[in-house]
Automatic annotation (TrEMBL), chain A:
InterPro entries: FAD-dep_OxRdtase_2_FAD-bd, FAD/NAD-bd_sf, Fum_R/Succ_DH_flav-like_C_sf, Fum_Rdtase/Succ_DH_flav-like_C, SdhA/FrdA/AprA. Residues 14-221 form the FAD-dependent oxidoreductase 2 FAD-binding domain. Pfam families: FAD_binding_2 (PF00890), Succ_DH_flav_C (PF02910). Residues 428-499 form the Fumarate reductase/succinate dehydrogenase flavoprotein-like C-terminal domain. GO terms for molecular function: oxidoreductase activity. This is Oxidoreductase. Keywords: Flavoprotein, Oxidoreductase. PANTHER family: SUCCINATE DEHYDROGENASE 2 FLAVOPROTEIN SUBUNIT, SUCCINATE DEHYDROGENASE [UBIQUINONE] FLAVOPROTEIN SUBUNIT, MITOCHONDRIAL.
TrEMBL record, chain B:
It comes from the Bacteria. It comes from Phyllobacterium myrsinacearum. Gene3D superfamilies: 3.30.70.20. Residues 1-30, 31-61 form the 4Fe-4S ferredoxin-type domain. This is Ferredoxin. One of its GO terms (molecular function) is iron-sulfur cluster binding. InterPro entries: 4Fe4S_Fe-S-bd, 4Fe4S_Fe_S_CS. Keywords: Iron, Iron-sulfur, Metal-binding.
Length: 529, 120
């Protein structure tokens, strides 16, 4: 960070929202609609940052009438979520999502189907985020683009009172003193090359942990999405018609349905895997560019016809993006356990709704829409009682204020080492206790070095903090996967293949200097108001 | 990764500099954008979508630079195809490029039905 005090843009607001993706924009709009003043800071550009902008999110979308529809949906999801999700949260998410999307009609041109019925459920990512940017602008939210947050501010009573960061295009620093803060910084894919995810480096997790926040569901971080090799293009719709082949051209048998991840990972551990989409019906081929306009881009640029030619594929890790874990939410307004700090979208755990399997696009998007609004309103309510005031102390540690003497730490090597523990299929999809123990040891060693010595300057501080965030997120994932000494949902342990009633609870994790885990004492979040 | 900003097409609006989520581009001394940090590019194609002059080309490789010949890219028909398929700007009224994203769920259902029909 720059040390020039005159280079600091200092602002005061009721609510500060960190992150301008799907959850952050919904949070900012909801907070603003209560009358609160709102500042939204985005690492990149609010409108293109985050994983929604490159995707095409459907939403969990069930009509309110007849009432049995939602009841059945919730009952089914409770079964597939292996008991870790909560019917009341699911009901709230279904209700608020249903009410919210039609309110975007001023900014998003919803399509009508052949019967003239307006289709609200699925939105194209770039248009969706462009609409949400217009919405927050129209409501009078102050947006600071290219202004990554580096650390939170905290009062001596433990409450969070703002944040500070850098202005990477305009130069200098920013500091926002706020009555309350919403973290909508997304999940992290550990820079796996998942489409659109390279702004999502877990920064909010690190900042929140420094304030004392805790996490839940971090063991459910083993979801992967298929893409052409050397490409980011993880748009998955067309792979519903995929045929996969091994290196000898022999078809790899796949179970019917969408769950191809584990058999593909098994095949990829044996050798290269190829794919074609020849089973795609002709009428769908013609529609793909106007359904998912980016899907064909890599193929067209390589001169590959995916409907005829075989192309090599890979699986990109989703980490906590299509994984489940994130900040523990302890109230209906998405408050965290730290006063004044709220969490929304992929920054928060989605266990409450998804349970132990991936929420996929539908549930995660609905969660972002709903949790964003609850967090925004909750933060505005909190700020009415706790007016923004200066005097908060910046609390960043790793990469900002090293524990001992500053010395050079190789960021590229540190990231590669983290990725080696959390991305390989044989460590993260097919888990075992001894491999997790080894990963834990490796990550602790890197953390000790990093925490003690790493410190960025204006040019390197963001990447330094991002690396620290991914590193410590990996520690929590590994610790949680060890603590869940069973298999459940997406968390599959080769050495513990059974699901055990002993683990019918959520697992909490946290700690920076020393990572801890414990069983969530409450089957439901505390109903604090 | 982003490979080209074609100055003969670029109007110097610098929208790409503003909207790039990973801050790859900068405004040069001639007030036009240039690729300042190619290695930060996340191959998300947003710059192409927001370039109304179709002056940007992003290559398909996400993990290595892949220099291209500008003449063949200009002749390829690839420039601007993303913006066209999105029906943005001058394509907004063209019925060929209306937003049919809402059909995604139906595509998944078709795939499921086909799988059921072909199941052994």
């Amino acid at each position: 960070m720059s040390n020039h005090r005159q280079d600091t843009l200092e602002l005061t607001t009721d609510v500060l929202v960190i992150g301008g993706g799907l959850a952050g924009t919904w949070a900012a709009s909801a907070a603003r609609r209560t009358g609160a003043s709102v500042i939204l800071v985005d690492k990149g550009y609010c409108g293109t940052s985050g994983v929604t902008a490159t995707a095409g999110p459907g939403h969990w979308w069930v009509p309110p009438d007849p009432a049995q529809l939602r009841e059945n949906t919730i009952r089914n999801r409770l079964k597939t979520g292996f008991g870790l999700n909560d019917p009341e949260w699911m009901n709230r998410v279904l209700a608020l999502t249903w009410e919210s999307l039609p309110t975007l009609a001023e900014f998003y041109n919803f399509s009508n189907d052949e019967n003239g019925v307006t289709q609200y459920r699925a939105l194209r990512g770039p248009e969706y985020m462009r609409a949400l940017r217009k919405l927050v602008d129209s409501l009078g939210v102050t947006v600071l683009d290219h202004s990554p947050a580096l650390e939170l501010l905290q009062h001596s009573d433990g409450s969070v009172s703002g944040a500070c960061g850098i202005r990477r295009q305009k130069g200098g620093d920013w500091q926002v003193n706020a009555g309350a803060v919403v973290l909508a910084t997304g999940g992290t894919s550990f820079l796996s090359r998942l489409l659109g995810s390279h702004t999502n480096t877990g920064d909010g997790y690190l900042m929140a942990a420094e304030a004392g926040a805790e996490f839940s569901g971090m063991e459910f971080t083993s979801y992967y999405t298929v893409a052409p090799n050397h490409s980011t293009m993880t748009r998955s719709m067309s792979y519903a018609f995929a045929t996969y082949y091994d290196e000898d051209g022999v078809v790899i048998p796949m179970p019917p349905g969408p769950d191809t991840m584990r058999p593909l990972a098994r095949a990829l551990l044996k050798g290269r895997v190829f794919c074609d989409l020849h089973r795609t019906p002709e009428d769908i081929r013609a529609k793909v560019p106007v359904i998912s306009p980016n899907f064909m881009l890599p193929f067209r640029r390589w001169g590959i016809d995916p409907y005829k030619d075989r192309f090599e594929i890979t699986l990109h890790g989703e980490g906590t993006i299509r994984g489940i874990g994130g900040l523990r939410v302890v109230g209906w307004d998405c408050r965290t356990s730290v006063p004044g700090l709220f969490a929304a979208g992929d920054a928060a755990t989605r266990e409450l709704v998804a349970g132990a399997i991936s929420g996929g696009g539908n549930i995660n998007s609905a969660w972002a829409v709903s949790s964003g609004q609850w967090a925004g309103q909750g933060a505005a309510r909190y700020a009415r009682k706790h007016e923004a005031a200066g005097g908060g102390r910046p609390i960043g540690q790793a990469g900002l204020r090293p524990g001992s003497a500053t010395r050079h730490v190789d960021l590229t090597a540190a990231l590669a080492a983290v990725q080696r523990e959390v991305l390989p299929y044989d460590k993260n999809i097919f888990r075992s206790g001894d491999r997790l123990e080894q990963s834990g040891t490796v990550l602790e060693d890197i953390w000790t070095e990093f925490h003690s010595h790493a410190a960025g300057n204006f040019q390197t501080v963001l990447r330094t903090r991002e690396t620290a965030a991914m590193l410590t997120t990996a520690r929590w994932c590994v610790a949680s996967a060890l603590a869940r000494d069973e298999s459940r949902g997406m968390h599959q342990r080769d050495d513990r293949p059974q699901t055990s009633a002993r683990f019918n609870r959520r697992i909490l994790v946290g700690g920076l200097q020393k990572v801890w885990t414990r069983t969530d004492p409450a089957p439901k979040p505390e109903l604090a108001s | 990764m982003i490979e080209l900003v074609l100055e003969e097409r670029c109007s110097g609006c610098n929208a790409c500099v503003e909207i790039c989520p990973t801050n790859v581009l900068e405004i040069g001394s001639d007030s036009s954008p240039f690729i300042a940090r190619q290695n930060e590019c996340q191959t998300c194609f947003m710059c192409e979508l927001y370039c109304v002059e179709d002056a940007i080309y992003v290559g398909p490789y996400c993990d290595r630079p892949d220099p291209v010949d500008r003449e063949s890219i200009l002749a390829s028909g690839l420039l601007g195809e993303l913006r066209r398929y999105h029906g943005w700007d001058e394509w907004a009224a063209d019925p060929r490029y209306s937003n049919e994203h809402w059909q995604m769920e139906k595509v998944f259902l078709r795939a499921r039905d086909m799988a059921i029909c072909t199941a052994p």
